């Protein structure tokens, strides 16, 4: 009999395949459906537009009681994503995670974070500072990273 984690991941994957959020594509690993490759198309009218950003979602046996581990595989100049691909989003913090949280909502929140960075909860404080004080310079550098790494 399938575990709670297995059933939940299969249900969430089915929901995402049937009704994917705008700009987001999910592909499960052929050998392990608990690992997903996610591609997010950069939101329009941002320095990330036209970019394709890949990340992985790794679901542990404790899912949905613990959040999945999400990592960006595409380099990104963003205050909430560090050079190792870790992302800072409140929804995925262990203390904020709720078992009822759906992956559709998580992926939409990540898309929103790409569209509108949160410099008040950064992983890279220098990028957050530039975002706050030199938006034109930030946009230029983020667009350079996008064209270099996210194609």
TrEMBL record:
Sorted UniProt keywords: ATP-binding, Nucleotide-binding, Transferase, Ubl conjugation pathway
EC number: 2.3.2.23
Pfam families in the record: UQ_con
Top-rank taxon: Eukaryota
Broad EC category: transferase
Gene3D superfamilies: Ubiquitin Conjugating Enzyme
Active site (catalytic residues): 88
InterPro entries reported for this sequence: Ub_conjugating_enzyme, UBC, UBQ-conjugating_AS, UBQ-conjugating_enzyme/RWD
Single GO molecular function: ubiquitin conjugating enzyme activity
Keyword Transcription included in the entry's annotation: no
Family: Belongs to the ubiquitin-conjugating enzyme family.
Protein name: E2 ubiquitin-conjugating enzyme
Organism: Kwoniella bestiolae CBS 10118
């Amino acid at each position: 009999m399938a575990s709670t984690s297995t059933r939940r991941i299969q249900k969430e994957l089915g929901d995402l395949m049937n009704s994917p959020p705008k700009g987001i594509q999910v592909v499960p690993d052929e050998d392990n459906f608990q690992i997903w490759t996610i591609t997010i198309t950069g939101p329009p009218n941002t320095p990330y537009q036209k970019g394709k950003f890949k990340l992985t979602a790794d679901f542990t046996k404790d899912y949905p009681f613990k959040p999945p581990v999400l990592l960006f595989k595409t380099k990104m100049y963003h205050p909430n994503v560090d050079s190792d691909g870790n992302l800072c989003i409140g929804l995925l913090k262990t203390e904020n995670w709720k078992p009822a949280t759906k992956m559709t909502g998580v992926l939409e929140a990540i898309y929103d974070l790409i569209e509108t960075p949160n410099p008040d909860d950064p992983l890279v404080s220098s990028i957050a500072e530039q975002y706050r004080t030199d938006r034109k310079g930030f946009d230029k550098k983020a667009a350079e990273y996008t064209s270099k790494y996210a194609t």
